Amino acid sequence: MGRCQGKQHFSHPHMLKLIVDPPETLTCNACDKSNISSNFYGCNSCQYFLHENCLNAPRFLDQSYHTSHHLTLLPLPTYSSRSYTCDACGTAGNGFSFNCAPCEFDIHMQCALLPQIVCLCKHHHHELQLIFESPFDDENTIFVCDICQDNVDLSYWFYYCVHCDFGTHLECAISKSVIQQEGKLASQMDVVD
């Protein structure tokens, strides 16, 4: 542990201290990812750890993809199953989420912070826009990811070039992206006090 003062986080009753060069791999309680190449804060006695970015995520967001209500950051799902299905990527989550209780809308914290535009220079010559709803009129449209060649579930978010009808899964675009525009969704966020 580092010798810093520590930080308090709403999700944990104890101060979280900066962890410098941990002897083992740690997993973030917020996003379930490891501590590789990221600062971590934690409470060793409780084995509770957060990436610095997760620790500093805003509590409330107003977003263009969910205009009905603001979204609240929750440390645990409020459902009896203790899990949720992310409305952005379609995968299960049991850690932190941005939630709208009246709409039963939940997204992973990392999905809320996806870049609005990515560039896949080796795969496509135009920027790809993050799409929240299917751009196709026919709901029976089958769309194939131009990176991995698997079907894209059009009820979830994906990256798309409308000019070329080129699209990818979220994870395919992020893993192949060389430039993520600084104008992220995060910059479009209105943080609610």
TrEMBL record:
GO terms for molecular function: metal ion binding. InterPro entries: C1-like_sf (IPR046349), DC1 (IPR004146), PKC_DAG/PE (IPR002219). Residues 68-119 form the Phorbol-ester/DAG-type domain. It holds the Pfam family C1_2. Keywords: Metal-binding, Repeat, Zinc. Transmembrane segments: none annotated. It comes from the Eukaryota. This is Phorbol-ester/DAG-type domain-containing protein. It comes from Capsicum annuum (Capsicum pepper).
